[in-house]
Amino acid sequence: MLNGRADGNNDFTCVSKRGRSVVDYVFAPHEQLDMCTSCDVYLMSDLIVDTGLNFEKSIPDHGPIVWTVNVKKDIACDTSNIGQAPNTDRPRYNLKRFPLNFLNNNKHIQDTIDKIEHELVTNKDINSAYTEFVTLIEKEMKDTVPVLKTPTGPSSNKRKKSLRKPYWTEELTSLWNKVCIKEKQWLKCKNCTNLRRKLKQEFCNIRNQFDKLNRNTKRKFQLKEQDNLSKLFQSNNTRDFWKYIGNIGIANERRQNIPFKVKTDEGFSSDVDVVLDKWKTDYEKLFNSGDNGNFDNNHLDW
């Protein structure tokens, strides 16, 4: 069992208002324990604070366990790079402009297949075979996929967008911070039973307050949205009504605009002139297709 045995943050795997316990475990064969370099247990409160993770009705009780396995290289593998500093200057590619001619060099691909088959059949070295495959993909991306420019300046250090719900308030933030503090005090208490019982009760009380306020705030927000929809529906303003509906839900959070990107002979392009010209040409062909013998006169009249 890796819990508490491997290096890393060891904590309770389940924390709720009813108590704390270790009910989730990671097991590994005894002969492979030296390959497991770390095992970390994360509290859900820490994940929510650090990543802005969303939760629906209530906070999950069980936290994730993350462990690291150091897979040893075979002796037959290339060891020339051992001891050298890792390469931190790897390019970042613009996958939005992925070309259509990717892996279109048949001779290069066939040479790589021959090398992979040689490593698997003759040398029986799957690591070297995989290295040949990775080399092929890296060379193709370097030759055909455009590289993203690395952002610099103050704008490159912007914090990522918060993932909290639209009904989130300052009062909820204040209560949530208190929940995290009380949880830490209770879990780290190693003193007498009476003190632990008192800290647990304080955690349960503040957690109950947060859960109740979270439910009430969400309910009020949903009622307000329903009332706005009802008013728009009664006003017979169908345009604003359907526009308002379109702004509700995860689809709006995922994508707010029509993708300004088209597929060309060279790949995908987001250039304004190219996109507009492509749209113009496609619509001209659509509405000026000429007579088509597959349709009768009645269909054309419509």
Q: If you had to describe this structure to a student in words, what would you say it looks like?
A:
The chain has 302 residues and is mostly helical. It contains nine helices and six strands; from the N terminus they run βββαβααααααββαα. Helix 4 runs antiparallel to helix 5. It is flat.
Would you spell out the secondary-structure blueprint of this structure?
Elements: E1 14-16, E2 19-21, E3 36-41, H1 44-51, E4 65-69, H2 106-123, H3 126-144, H4 170-187, H5 193-234, H6 238-246, H7 250-254, E5 262-264, E6 267-269, H8 272-287, H9 297-301
Antiparallel strand pairs: 1-2, 3-4, 5-6
Helix pairs in contact: 2-3, 4-5
What would the keywords be for this entry?
302 residues, single chain, 9 helices, 6 strands, two-stranded antiparallel sheet, mainly alpha
Shape: flat
Report on the biggest sheet. Answer: 2 strands, antiparallel
Q: What's the helix-strand series?
A: EEEHEHHHHHHEEHH
- Counting DSSP E segments of at least 2 residues, the number of strands comes to 6
Helix content range: 40-55%
Low-pLDDT ranges: 158-163
What is the gyration radius calculated from CA atoms? 29 Å
Number of helices: 9
Looking at the chains present, what oligomeric state does this protein adopt? single chain
Strand portion, in percent?
5-15%
